[in-house]
Fold this sequence. Notes:
Layout lengths: L5 E3 L20 E8 L9 E2 L7 E2 L2 H15 L2 E6 L8 H4 L4 H10 L3 E3 L9 H10 L3 E3 L3 E3 L12 E6 L2 E9 L3 H4 L2 H4 L2 E3 L2 H13 L5 E7 L3 E3 L2 E3 L1 H8 L7 E3 L7 E5 L2 E5 L6 E10 L2 E10 L9 H18 L2 E5 L12 H14 L3 E4 L11 E4 H7 L5 E8 H10 L5 E3 L1 E5 L9 E6 L10 E7 H4 L13 E7 H10 L13 E3 L2
Parallel strand pairs: 2-5, 5-6, 6-7, 10-12, 12-15, 15-17, 21-27, 25-29
Antiparallel strand pairs: 1-16, 2-18, 3-4, 8-11, 9-10, 13-14, 16-17, 18-19, 20-22, 21-24, 23-27, 23-28, 25-26
Amino acid sequence: MAGRSCRVKWLPLLVALLTTPVWAQEFPVHLRVLATHDLHGALQPVVYPWSQERPIGGAQAINWTVRKLTADCACATIHVDGGDLMQGTLESNLMNGAATVVFFNHLGLDAAAVGNHELDWGVDTLLQRQQEARYGWLAANVFEVATGARPTWAKPYVMLEENGVRIAVIGYATIDTPATLRPSVTAPYEFRSGYAALAPVLDEVWSQSPDFVIVAAHAGGECLDDVCKGEIVELARSIPAGRAHMIAGGHDHTAGQGLVSGIPIVRAGANGTAIAVVDLYKMADVVTFTTENATVYADVIEEDTMLAALLAPFEASAAERAAREVTTLTDTLTSDRDGDRRLGELIADALRAAANADVGMQNNGGVRANLLAGPVTYGDLFRVLPFDNKLVTLTVTGSQLHALVMQASPSYYYSNLHIVYDPELEPSGQIRNVTFADGSPLKPDAQYTLATVDFLADGGDGLALLSTLPREPIGLSNLDVLITYIQTLGKPLKLPVNARRTRLP
Length: 505
C-alpha cells in the first residue's frame, strides 16, 4: 500500500542465535521457523574468504544445524526454503537435481518456493522432482495463460501442523522468471505480482484457522539507507496488516533481515551458508518475533551415516567427472564483467569456433565462476558454465546484428566484434559504435551467422529480437563446446588481453 515504509534496514548477519527472551515464555503459542534459500545444489562444504579458513555449509552441516536448532527450541519447528534448491553443482546437476531432493527429503524440509532455476530443465523434469519430494513446492502466483488456472507444478500452499500449532505456508515465484529462462519454457505461464495474486489463497488459508501464515517467496529486494526496494519489499507492502506473519525470501544471494510494513523478511544467505531462525510468539491476536542467522559451520558436526549413504552414489559420479583435467592456465581468469574479460571472451570464441560462425556472443550472467591459475578440471569448468545451455546458430543481417549489440549490455562478451561504449550514458545508450574485430564495418544488408546459446536465442535476457531470427540448433552444450575448444589451444594455456571494447573517457 502507498505510504507504508520499511522500519529496519537489512544488514548482512553472521551472528549467534539469541536465546529465547524471558517474556516470550509466557506466550502460549510458539513457532520456530528455520528458513534457507538458494542452495543451488551446494551439497559439499566450502571455505569462503570471510570464513577464516573454516568450512561452511554442505549437506551434512546443514542437516546437523537444522536438527540442533530444532532440538534446542523444544517447540513447534518447521523448515521452509525460498527456492532455487537444485541447479548449480555437478553432483546435483548430473541427474537434474535428484540428489538435492534426496537431501531435502532426509532433512525433513516442509515447504519451498518454486525458484526460477527450478525450471531450468523444463516443466517435465520439475514435475518429476516434485513427485519424488516429500515437501510442498509452492507458487501461488503462477497461472496458465490459456486457462487462467494454476499449473500442476504450482501448488499454492500447504497447511502444516506441528505440536498442535497450525501453520499455512504460501509460495510465491519471482516475476523475473520469464526473463531468466528460455521463453519456450515460460511462455505458457503468467507470473503475477503482489497481494492481488495471493489474496484468494490468503482467504482460503485463513478460513482454516491457522495460528501463523508464512510466505515463502523467491523474490529479491534490499533496504539501504532506510530506503527499501525490490519485489519482495513491494510484496510485503501490498499485504494488508495481519494477513501474513513473515516472509522467507530468496533469489538475491546476500544475507539480510528487515521489517517491512510490520512483516519480518528474512534471507539467510545462499548456498547453505546460514539458516535464518525466526521465533514467532502468539497470544490472542498479537504476534511478536525475534530473528537471527545461524552460520552453518561444517567443522563442529557429527556425520549422519544414513545421509552419507544416500548421497554417496551422486558424490562418487560427480567426483570422478570433476577430477578430469582439461588444461593448465598460466593466469587466473575472472568472471568480472568490468575487469579481466578473457574468460567470457574465451567462451564466445568457443561458441563461434564450434559453429564456424562469423560472430560469437555470451552473456555475462551465464559466466558463474573464476578459473584459477594452474590445473583446470572438468569440475572447475562446470562451475563456470553450470546451466547446460545448448549451442545455436542464428542468421542475422548486419543491421540486425548492430541493433542487437546496441540493445544488449556492453558487458556482454563477443568474438570477432569490437565495441565502443560510454559508461556515463544511460544503459540503453552506452554502446556508441560496433565493428568487426579488424575494424571493418557491419554491412547493413549482408547476412552473417551468430553463434550463441539457446537461452539467448529464445529471447532470454530481454533480447526478443533473437527469437525472431532463422536458426540452426547445433545441440552441443556450451560446457562441452568450451572444453573441446580449450583442448585445441594446447598446454599451458595463456590467453592474451585483447581490447575488444574501447571505453570513451
